[in-house]
Amino acid sequence: MNSEALWAQGAQQFQQIFGDSWAKALQSFQNLDLGGPPGKVPAVQLSPAKLQALQEQYLKEAQALWSQSLQGTPEVKDRRFSGDGWASNPVAAFSAAAYLLNARTLMQMAEAVQGDAKTKARIRFAVQQFVDAASPSNFLAMNPDALQKAKDELELRVAER
């Protein structure tokens, strides 16, 4: 089987899983108490056509990112990942680029949710909080600049003894 057929098969499986997962997530929003009147849960939906378009764009960008990473270190344009450690470490650069792709897609999905303005604002806020918290720059093991600073500090303390 050639690589294009494998990508197509993987993309189809991903779309199905992605669509099912998002449908379940939206359904769970139906059961949340969002502070409205008792018994009245705000309705939220996502257009199937919009979801499919987002999935197709995600797969296209994910394939491009993977291809770019096979050619070398992917370029990442975000201030959180501007340090030398991110640019010189292909794994860290790929992690940052994949995070940015996922974050962008999740925010586009949050923007595409159909519902009243207050509910949409709450969904956007919750997704933004999740996206910001999940940044690889927030985790020592995934942040090459923070690891380098920790290593330098440790070496300094050992040298002082």
Give the proportion of residues in helices: over 70%
Order of helices and strands: HHHHHH
- Give the strand tally: 0
How many helix segments? 6
**Mean pLDDT value:** 85
Given as residue ranges, the uncertain stretches (5+ residues, pLDDT < 50) are none
Indicate the proportion of strand residues.
Answer: under 5%
- Structural shape: flat
**Could you give the distance between the termini?**
61 Å
Radius of gyration: 20 Å
Tell me the major beta sheet: none
Query: Structural class per helix/strand content?
Result: mainly alpha
Can you describe what's shown?
Helices cover 71% and strands 0% of the residues. It has 161 residues and is mainly α. The longest helix is centred in the first third of the chain and has 28 residues.
List keywords for this structure.
single chain; mainly alpha; 6 helices; 161 residues
Write a brief caption for the model.
The protein has 161 residues and is an all-alpha fold. It has helices at 3-30, 48-71, 84-88, 90-112, 117-133, 144-160.
SSE topology:
Blueprint: H1 3-30, H2 48-71, H3 84-88, H4 90-112, H5 117-133, H6 144-160
Helix pairs in contact: 1-2, 2-4, 4-5
